[in-house]
């Protein structure tokens, strides 16, 4: 009946409580000129299934997904590939490095309007698809069936009860 027990229980249930996050690029500044997007990305845990939202006044900026070379040299892809809604939402569908630039004027080259992130795998259930409100009782495919069955049986109320029992040492 120690913190170790509580920790183990939390380790088992925590994946159930994890859900996809929206990251507003630049937070309240949005997608804009002369903002340090590398500093903004620093320390953030981007996961598969999360979303990036680029916010800016329509027509002033745009968003291109590029590769590392395009990022480095501010190479604009064809205009047809631009996102232009001013509220561009990109689902981070795969792990790995992702690069985005603004393709308007010299915003990328002259005003560092570029973002580089690394997306981490959504462990420990890589097959889990993003859903609006994952229910703990809902059956989902897990690689490890024993682990999966434990999680599927857990009900939020039970989780609280088990945690309380552990803390107060019944
Ligand atoms: C990067 O993208 C450009 C097109 O924007 C392409 O020509 C180039 O081959 C790509 N480089 C790599 C390493 O994939
Ligand atoms: C912007 O996009 C997000 C995510 O797609 C959406 O939830 C939100 O309602 C949109 N906001 C506006 C102002 O369109
Ligand atoms: Cu721009």
Automatic annotation (TrEMBL):
An annotated Gene Ontology molecular function: electron transfer activity
Record keywords, A-Z: Copper, Disulfide bond, Electron transport, Glycoprotein, Membrane, Metal-binding, Signal, Transmembrane, Transmembrane helix, Transport
GO biological process entries: response to symbiotic fungus
Any single GO CC term annotated in Swiss-Prot or TrEMBL for this entry: plasma membrane
Pfam families: Cu_bind_like
Localization: Membrane
Domain of life: Eukaryota
Chief place where the protein resides: membrane
Domain Phytocyanin: from-to ranges: 21-121
InterPro entries linked to this entry: Cupredoxin, Phytocyanin-like, Phytocyanin_dom
Membrane topology qualifier: Single-pass type I membrane protein
Signal peptide residues on this chain, from the entry's feature table: 1-20
PANTHER family from the UniProt entry: BLUE COPPER PROTEIN, PHYTOCYANIN DOMAIN-CONTAINING PROTEIN
Protein's recorded name: Phytocyanin domain-containing protein
Organism in which the protein naturally occurs: Actinidia rufa
């Amino acid at each position: 009946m120690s913190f170790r027990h509580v920790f183990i229980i939390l380790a088992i249930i925590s994946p159930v409580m994890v859900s996809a996050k929206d990251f507003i690029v630049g937070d309240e500044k949005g997608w804009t000129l002369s903002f340090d997007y590398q500093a903004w990305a620093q320390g953030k845990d981007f996961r598969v299934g999360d979303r990036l939202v680029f916010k800016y006044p329509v027509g002033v900026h745009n968003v291109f997904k590029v590769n590392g070379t395009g990022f480095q040299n501010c190479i604009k892809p064809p205009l047809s590939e631009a996102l232009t809604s001013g509220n561009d939402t990109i689902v981070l569908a795969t792990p790995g490095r992702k690069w985005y630039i603004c393709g308007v004027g010299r915003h990328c080259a002259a005003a560092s309007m570029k973002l580089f992130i690394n997306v981490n795998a959504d462990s420990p259930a890589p097959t889990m698809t993003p859903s609006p409100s994952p229910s703990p009782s809902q059956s989902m495919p897990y690689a490890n069936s024993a682990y999966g069955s434990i999680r599927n049986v857990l009900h939020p109320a039970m989780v609280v009860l088990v945690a309380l029992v552990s803390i107060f040492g019944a």
